[in-house]
Specification:
Largest sheet: 5 strands, antiparallel
Number of strands: 12
Strand content: 15-25%
Structural class: alpha+beta
């Protein structure tokens, strides 16, 4: 796996900084690029809402003049209300250069007709003065008499000319327009000429802002049996000063946000990474064998939990290391004693005539067996921990097996004066690995013999509790300290104050007992009071073989 060379501090810093830059980019994109679109949509919805308010006002109020003024002022709109003939009823204009009140009669007629054709509503959108020019060219077609020309006398431009007229800019020269007018007059038609007496009626909406997009909402309503026409004018293009102000404001906001983002990124990345860096340094010391290292990071929940886990790991590794060193010392002692005895007796038998006796040979054999047992126990522990040993359960008489174990201690009873009692009610059959359970019983009895009191008494109790068999092995020694009880089953554990050469066995049996019982799924434990001995027990279900 490729190793990352970027520290968590700089990676966190980069993420925060990139996030701030992306956020600013999105802000600039929507506020500048799409400002016009947002503004237009908002103004359209605002104008539609005002149109409904004005309509309700006309229905509910006898004198809505002041309210109409307030609505137009608060929304920066032009509100013009007339009867069906175009006679003004109410007028409130709060748009710069708006001249809704001077709307020519012919344009009012066009708006009115379009609204009637659309079911009483019409929306007229235009840019600057193009509405006036478009209407003059395409709609207001009259003859020299001032009367509208019949359709057959109206010149219909071809598609190319029509397109040219549509795309013609407001900067066309007066000479071109004059030539076009003269050509139309020569043919007895006037295509878009407004009579002299009508020129005063030209609708010059948004004068001086020819590029501004505007919209006029036209709505025909019936108020007390009379038709009234509501016209609301709204500018859809943001004011140039507003756009400029937003840009300047965004520059300052961007600069401030970059500085703040840089500061926050540096501060947060340092704060977040500090605990991780500290834990990493401590973990390196732990890997080097310094088990006294302490992890005290509490900045965040996950870091705090990691610190607790590493502290527990350091403690357990320290105990394991201590137990390993103690094991080496104890095992070395247990190995040195029989080796010394074997060597001593062998030299005596070699050098001194008559010492080659069966008793001396038996000592050598006994010490050799002790060495073999010690090595075998250590190998068994390793195999059990590695999971390479499996059990082969079968139904057998565990009571008989206990008696066989105790028979192995007849010599201790006769020579050393030990008393080993076996208390039971009935012969009990269990489903387990007979050889492994024999080893468990043997090691528990060995442990009791090694640590029993001056009376040299050991008691083995077999009892049945419901569907469970419970075996207890008691001694009368000093017992196990309460703080040491969780560790008595550890393969490296041995009471420092009581270490001596085992009378029987190797002193490593409890770890083997624990692992074998766990393979059987059995419960086990130890109860002890200081100065009153200890009781080691385990339980096996009697109906296990039925399952």
């Amino acid at each position: 796996m490729k190793k990352s060379r970027v520290s968590v501090k700089w990676k966190t810093f980069s993420i925060f900084l990139i996030f701030a830059i992306v956020l600013l980019g999105v802000l600039w994109f929507f506020q500048i690029v799409y400002l016009d679109d947002f503004y237009k949509n908002i103004k359209r919805k605002e104008t539609e809402a005002v149109l409904n308010d004005v309509e309700n006002l006309l229905y509910s109020s006898d004198n809505p003049t002041d309210d109409i003024e307030k609505i137009a002022a608060s929304n920066n709109l032009g509100i013009y209300i007339t009867d069906k003939n175009g006679v003004a009823l109410y007028n409130a204009e709060y748009i710069s250069n708006s001249q809704m009140s001077s709307l020519p009669q012919f344009m009012f007629g066009l708006f009115y007709e379009q609204a009637v054709a659309n079911g009483g509503e019409a929306v007229i959108e235009f840019k600057g003065n193009e509405m006036q020019r478009k209407v003059a060219k395409e709609r207001f077609l009259i003859g020299e008499s001032g009367e509208p020309l019949p359709p057959e006398n109206i010149e219909q431009p071809d598609s190319e000319n029509g397109k040219a007229d549509t795309e013609e800019s407001e900067t066309d020269s007066d000479e071109a327009e004059a030539d076009e007018i003269e050509d139309s007059k020569a043919q007895g038609k006037i295509a878009y000429t407004i009579p002299e007496e009508k020129k005063e009626e030209v609708f010059r909406q948004n004068i001086g802002n020819d590029l501004a997009e505007s919209v006029i909402y036209v709505h025909i309503i019936d108020v007390d049996g009379q038709e009234e026409v509501i016209m609301i004018n709204s500018v859809l293009t943001p004011v140039d000063a507003t756009v400029y102000t937003l840009k300047v404001q965004l520059r300052f906001i961007s600069a401030i946000m970059i500085v703040i983002a840089f500061f926050l990124a540096a501060t947060l990345s340092k704060t977040i990474s500090r605990s991780i860096i500290r834990i990493n340094d401590g973990a390196k010391r732990l890997a080097d064998g310094d088990y006294s290292v302490k992890f005290n990071s509490r900045d965040y929940m996950e870091v705090s939990e990691l610190s607790d886990t590493l502290n527990y790991t350091a403690t357990e590794l320290g105990k394991t290391d201590s137990f390993q060193k103690e094991l080496i010392a104890n095992v070395s002692h247990d190995l040195r004693t029989p080796l010394t005895m074997i060597k001593g007796y062998a030299e005596v038998m070699r050098d001194i005539p008559g010492e080659n006796t069966p008793e001396n040979v038996q000592v050598i054999i006994d010490e050799t067996e002790r060495l073999t047992s010690l090595v075998n126990d250590m190998l068994d522990i390793s195999k059990l921990k590695a999971g390479t040993i499996t059990i082969q359960p079968e139904e057998y008489n565990i009571t008989e097996s206990i008696r066989h174990v105790l028979e192995r201690y007849n010599k201790l009873r006769e020579v050393e004066g030990y008393t080993i009692d076996f208390i039971y009610d009935d012969e009990i059959m269990v489903y387990a690995d007979e050889q492994k359970m024999y080893q468990v019983l043997y090691n528990l009895v060995n442990n009791a013999i090694n640590y029993t009191g001056e009376d040299k008494k050991v008691t083995v109790i077999q009892r049945v509790l419901d569907d469970t068999l419970r075996i207890e092995v008691k001694d009368t020694g000093e017992g196990v300290k309460q703080e040491d009880i969780p560790y008595v089953w550890d393969r490296y554990y041995k009471d420092k104050t009581a270490h001596k050469r085992a009378i029987s066995g190797t002193g490593l049996g409890l770890s083997i007992v624990k692992n074998v019982l766990e393979l059987h799924g059995a419960k086990y434990g130890v109860s002890s009071k200081q100065g009153q001995g200890a009781t080691f027990w385990f339980e096996l279900p009697l109906n296990l073989y039925e399952e």
